[in-house]
UniProtKB/TrEMBL annotation:
It comes from the Bacteria. InterPro entries: HAD-like_hydrolase_sf, HAD-like_sf, HAD-SF_hydro_IA, HAD_sf, PGP-like_dom2, PhnX-like. This is Phosphonatase-like hydrolase. Gene3D superfamilies: HAD superfamily/HAD-like (3.40.50.1000), Putative phosphatase, domain 2 (1.10.150.240).
Amino acid sequence: MTNIKLAVFDMAGTTVDEDNMVYKTVQKVINQEGFDLSLAQVLAQGAGKEKYQAIIDILTAYTQANPVEEIAGRAFDRFKPTLEAVYNEAEIKGFEGVEALFAQLKAHGIKVVLNTGYDLKTATKLLQKLNWKIGEQVDALITADDVTQGRPHPDMIQKAMQLFGIADPQQVLKAGDSEIDILEGKNAHCGLTIGVLSGAQTKAQLQTVQPDYILERLTDLPAILQLS
């Protein structure tokens, strides 16, 4: 039986199947500033981060943007309304078996928390489209708006721990589809860090930050935790 008491899961690409819509939107608003960046570049530098910081990091890595903050600010101002329009039209669904996984974890006394580099408005819209409710499918939602420092800082995981009175980070697992998810878990000293290949980054990219496990999909998790 596992000693894990809290499971913190990323949203897009880990629990939520949205075909990289958020990063395609980041790519679009950056390229509207006169660049020609690929989705692979956006994913490599932006995956999992608060989205203004993601834009800054992408521009810094791949362009000579100057002043970078001003250009990033204009792109970010377009990002939220553009993504909202995309999400209003899109079909958003959880990955197959994820709701059953949530229920299985909760049945074993493990709290299920979603955390994300999205702002609260975007994350809430996603939950509504999925028909996931706090207190039902998941126990809590922590967004970039809830903390001063986003990923890879451990603040969102630590906030989740505080919500449920968990003092020992060895009782926490963090799973996500990007390097920054794994680094967030390591910086929080989580007992388990798990990469999944259902979203933004490749196995080779995830291996650079040495998660404890890399899974094809999140629903492979019960075997790791030895849940019956």
